[in-house]
């Protein structure tokens, strides 16, 4: 069993693909009993299903581990920043 889980909601995009967003975390109870503590950073919204019913589904999954994904850094700290934002 993992030490921590991510709470996610899944939604369908306009392109028909499914996308998940992390909305919180869950930890197993320290007592060892069957249960979890849930901490929400955002609350899920109910979504309309194809059959017309409303549902509010939250998925609990092990955290995604990607050791090779480091934050991008400017190789030259003295280089000017590019602050141009195209609008």
Strand content: 35-45%
Cα gyration radius (Å): 19 Å
Which structural class best describes the helix and strand composition? mainly beta
The number of distinct β-strands equals 6
Distance between the termini: 47 Å
Largest sheet: 4 strands, antiparallel
Element pattern in H and E = EEEEEE
State the low-pLDDT regions, or none.
none
User: How do the strands line up in the largest sheet?
Assistant: 3-2-1-6
Total number of helices:
0
Shape: flat
Helical percent range?
under 10%
Average of the residue pLDDT scores: 83
Please characterize this protein's 3D structure.
The chain is mainly beta. A 4-stranded antiparallel beta sheet has the order 3-2-1-6, with no helix packed on it. A two-stranded antiparallel ribbon has the order 4-5.
Summarize the structure.
With 87 residues, the protein is mainly β.
Descriptive keywords:
87 residues; 6 strands; 0% helix; flat; 4-stranded antiparallel sheet; mainly beta
